[in-house]
Design brief:
With 483 residues, the chain is an alpha+beta fold. It is built from 16 helices and 19 strands. The strands form 4 sheets. The protein has an 8-stranded antiparallel sheet. It has a 6-stranded mixed sheet with strand order 4-5-10-7-8-9. The chain is globular and about 70 Å long. The structure holds flavin-adenine dinucleotide. The site of flavin-adenine dinucleotide has 32 residues, from strand 2, helix 4 and strand 10.
Amino acid sequence: MSQPWERINNLPDDEQASRDVSVNTLSELRAELATAHSARALAAGWGFSHAGCTTGTRLRMLSFSGVSEPTDLLPGMTSRPFDLDVAVPSESPGPLRRVGAGTSFADLNAALHTLTVINQPGFGDLTFGGVMMVGGHGSGINRGNIASQVRSMDLLTMPERGVTKLVRLEPEPLSDPLQFVRQFGSDPRTAELIVDRALFDAAKVSFGTMGVLSSVVIDTRPSYRLHEDRDVRDLWADWAKIERQVRDPNVCGVHLWVNPYRVGADYKALQSTYRRSLDMKRNERGWGIREADAPFTRYITRGIAKELPFFMPFALEFSFGALEADGVVMPSPEALDFGPPNKMQVSASSVSFPAEGLKDTLEKLLHHFKVTFPRNLVSSLIGIRWVKGSDAPLAPQFGRDSVMIEVPVLNDTEHQQETLQKYVEFAIKELGGRPHWGQRFWMSSQELRSIYGAPQVDAFIAARRRLDPLGVFDNSLTRQLAL
Ligand SMILES: Cc1cc2nc3c(=O)[nH]c(=O)nc-3n(C[C@H](O)[C@H](O)[C@H](O)COP(=O)(O)OP(=O)(O)OC[C@H]3O[C@@H](n4cnc5c(N)ncnc54)[C@H](O)[C@@H]3O)c2cc1C
């Protein structure tokens, strides 16, 4: 059977690795890294950006998979309280778990049994390390990005040529120093436990630029079920209600899928609303979700994108009817996964904007899509998700509660890359948006400084110089952004 990376490759192809190797153990990883001139870890390869590229050694990390109970922590360590559920206010946090960086969210949730993650992205095949490193996220204004549930991370670095060093980073003491020495030895040239919040925060969203992540310790919570309602709505009719629902403690999360083109009197959107449920699993999602990847659906959407682009706004409008369904109850890993639409072949860009003032941002974006149509055709619904602010200096959600607006364009659409590029450039230049590191983006070092602020960029560079003084993890992106 072919390996996942032989089937998936969303990476740009203008930078080719001189060596491409799958590593299975820490000693294999050490040996490969020690002989590499430059290197970059890669997980499942779903990422669309240059962040995952290298001309040196590509280290495939999917074998670093699995979940275990950490036995090397200080006594009494447990998960932090999550966004306490109004429905079950007395629920206590779960125990901590060690997770291999290459573990997919589907495997992770399965291995957690009666527990689950605090938050997850909308696709179970993505890996914990891959999503965490790019500032990836799920949804819910009370939930941080994926990196926010991490308490400790093990990074393999190369501070001296030919000498690799395992760095365990923690923002506050979690691991037992004696057990760490027992496991990795007492030579600080090859292993070190570092408790340093600023370094930890910079490294947790560093898109592979500070070392190779082998595992993390994460918070967990007891498994739970969600009630999903998907309703078609006029976008601007009672906009204030969406803003209220997003912040309502009884609502776990809201997603909007918007037709970027206005067909009738108002823009149309599909609103998914998630609430905690104590009911058993019941009902099914709309057939349009279940059949999104069916050969017939692919044939139709491809045909319209390729041959009849002027009909795309109407096709998107028509699709809403097949997506509605109320009262669907599912375990949280299933409810938070978008399901078959993930398999549609697209290239995508996603940008973070402040949650405050979303209406104004969205109006400007929709105007942008209008004036660039039909040459730049957005051939899918655009996705809007809310995420709590992050303390990682280069996380797209840094310092502000955010909305991530994702624009997917089908692979058969003409001018696909140009459409994405114009979206990202407009978002950065006109709206101060910050691109998702795992999706397609175009950005200069000046723009990076203007959208994050010089102190954040400098904090990131300082962390890089400390963890990667030789620039082993440099690539075209770090050079372009002067990181
Ligand atoms: C169908 C689909 C659905 C998606 N849904 C979401 C979503 O809901 N939310 C969201 O935020 N994003 C989403 N994304 C984007 C996703 O976050 C990126 O694609 C991301 O790159 C994760 O993919 P991956 O696990 O295959 O990691 P990869 O693409 O393999 O790697 C991503 C980055 O992380 C680095 N990296 C990977 N592993 C390691 C490691 N062990 N050590 C150090 N660095 C490492 C790589 O160098 C690279 O820069 C989606 C993408 C797709 C294709």
